[in-house]
Amino acid sequence: MALQAANGRGIVWATLIMALLLQIMPLPSVVADFRADWVFIALAYWTMALPHRYSILTAWILGIMLDILLGATMGVRGLALALMIYVIALHYKRIRNFPIWQQSIIIASLSIVYHLIIFWIQFAIHRVAFDPAELLPAVSNLVIWFWAYWLLKRLRRDFKVR
Questions:
Q1: Where are the bilayer-spanning segments (predicted)?
Q2: In a domain, 30, yes or no
Q3: Number of domains in the chain
Q4: What's the predicted TM-score (pTM) here?
Q5: How far apart are CA 47 and CA 85, in angstroms?
Q6: Three-state secondary structure string covering the chain
Q7: In whole angstroms, what is the distance from residue 95 CA to residue 2 CA?
Q8: In a domain, 29, yes or no
Q9: Is residue 68 part of a domain?
C-alpha cells in the first residue's frame, strides 16, 4: 500500500517537473509568444483529479520554482499560480463534470487571468507596459488542454495514481 502511494506521488511529480522543463525550454521566436503554460495545465489537471493532495501549496512551490528558473521577480508566478489553483480547487467538482471542450475554455480563461495577475504585480513593482501578446498562451492552452487531459488521465489510470 505504501509503495503504491509513493509510486503515485512520483508519477505526479515527474509530470510536474516535466511541465517545468517544457515551460523553460527555448522556442523559436515565431512561436515563443504562444508558449503554453505547461505548469498551469499540469497542476490544473492534478488539482481537479486529486484536490486533497495537490493544490495551493503545490502551486505556490511550483510558481516559486518557475520564478527561479525564469529569473523573474520572486513570488510573482507563485502568487498568480496559487490564486488560479485556488479557484480550480474551489470548483473542481463542477469543472471536472463539464465536457472537455468546456474545460478547455475554463482553463484558457483562467490562463488569461493568470497572465493578467502576473502583469499587475509586475506593473506595481517595475512599472512595465502591457503587451497584448502576453495573453496569447491562452490560445495554446485552449488547444493543448485536450491532449494534456487525455495524457495525464491515461497516466493516472495506468499507474493507479490515487
A1: 12-31, 38-62, 68-92, 104-123, 135-152
A2: no
A3: 1
A4: 0.93
A5: 7
A6: CHHHHHHHHHHHHHHHHHHHHHHHCCCCCCCHHHCCCHHHHHHHHHHHHCCCCCCHHHHHHHHHHHHHHHCCCCCHHHHHHHHHHHHHHHCHHHHHHCCHHHHHHHHHHHHHHHHHHHHHHHHHHHCCCCCHHHHCHHHHHHHHHHHHHHHHHHHHHHCCCC
A7: 30
A8: no
A9: yes
Measure the CA–CA gap between 31 and 9, rounded to whole angstroms. 33
CB of 41 within 8 A of CB of 150? no
Q: How far apart are CA 62 and CA 88, in angstroms?
A: 16
Please give the residue range of the domain that contains residue 133. Answer: 2-24+35-158
d(CA 43, CA 36): 13
